[in-house]
Amino acid sequence: MLGSLRFRLPAFFLLGIMLAGLVAALISIRFFQNYNRARAVDELRSESVGIVRLYARQAGVEAVPYRNLIRALGGDRVYWAPAFRGATLLQNIPDLPAGVVDRARVRSIQRPTTMELKIGGTKVIAVARPLRLGSQLFGALVVAKPQSQLRSRLVTLIERLAIAFGGGVIVASLLGVYLTRRITRPLLALSEAADEVAGGNYGVELPTPKGSDEISHLSTRFSDMAAKLAESEQLSRNFLMSVSHELRTPLTAIRGHVSAVRDGVIDDPEMREASLEVISEEAMRLERLVGDVLDLAKLDAHRFTVLQEEVDMEHLSERAYAAFGEEARRRAINYKLRLDARPVIVTDGDRVLQIIVNLLSNAFRWTPEGGRIEVRLGAENGSVSVCVADSGPGISPEERDRIFRPFWSRDGGGTGLGLAIASELALALGGRIELQSEPGLGSRFELVLPAN
Hints:
The chain has 3 domains: about 5-150, 2-Layer Sandwich (Beta-Lactamase); about 215-300, Helix Hairpins; about 310-450, Heat Shock Protein 90 (2-Layer Sandwich), CATH 3.30.565. The protein is built from 11 helices and 11 strands. The protein has helices spanning about 5-60, 65-75, 105, 145-200, 215-260, 270-300, 315-320, 325-330, 350-365, 395-400, 420-430; strands at about 75-80, 115-120, 120-135, 135-145, 310, 335-340, 345, 370-380, 385-390, 430-435, 445-450. The strands form 3 sheets. Strands 6-8-9-11-10 form a 5-stranded mixed β-sheet. Strands 1-4-3-2 form a 4-stranded antiparallel β-sheet. β10 and β11 (about 445-450) form a beta hairpin. α9 (about 350-365) runs antiparallel to α11. It is rod-shaped, with a radius of gyration of 50 Å. The two termini are about 65 Å apart.
């Protein structure tokens, strides 16, 4: 419980609020102390001005009752500090107790001076202002305010700050609990969903996230990840089924012909030669299938080696074109080769041929009988291109992102490796495959390779 996010989040949130509140309170108390002391000193200075003028004007003429003076000052005390022995006022103002301020210090007072004194066991803050009769310094009048008055104001401030701080802690606690639940609830849902995905249930549903914060973004990305995992598992299942079918068909044919030859069922030399030809073709078919799987594994593991050799693209295009000539005649497909350039580049010729063959194989698979397939070789702007255009059913925008994925097939047939391997090989050779297609208008695959 103490180590969970549901506890730590509000705890750290509340701790941060408390620390911020304490720092703010200490700063406020410090500023208030300085302000309160400065205000008290200003009051004492103002009072001392009037008292000194009063006594300077009334000195030796008429007494100013001390009681009335104290009442007028609102409780602040006034003391007399003589500058020399015998310098006493006629009015009833008490002298400062002996030892509080000596006469030498009084004689040095030339302007209003702020002092902190201890009179009768009470700490006071005082302002001493010199009293002159003519040109003679007669002494100093000291107006004092007990520091307990300043502390009482500070205590009032601290009490109010404590009330405000307590209220702030309560509000912060409630807000922290609310925010913690708001954050941890979707996280707990994500954790439970992760457990489901780990158990193989990719169809888990998450609550629709609200807003655009990090938690909502995480929920969206997790849903996308689960969907992609489900799609990947489906593709893997389709691949296993497709590969099993692709392997079983040639193996069945090979086993049947081998059994017929071994058991002497086929006596005619021509029929035996035909059986051996079928065995050879099916073995080559198996070899191509295994080679495709191995090529894809090498490309995914970045263990693919690219050779560097001079390649005559005209000769390479003609080889790839000729490989499908018989099928084009058999299916009455309008099959053309167009050479707009005859470049020679440095690349891996076998892999370029493999890419073109894969593109042509895909085109012949989807082009109906009597359709059209064109192979065009061109070169411009520092690049060489081999374009394979067909009159097949075309590809929808939704399928264009998936058509180059391994094991994905539009009709569920085949292994779904041809275009995936072609795309990865093109990238390995420093090129790319571009696709232009519209449903019902055919497709155009273009292999683009650097000329240099």
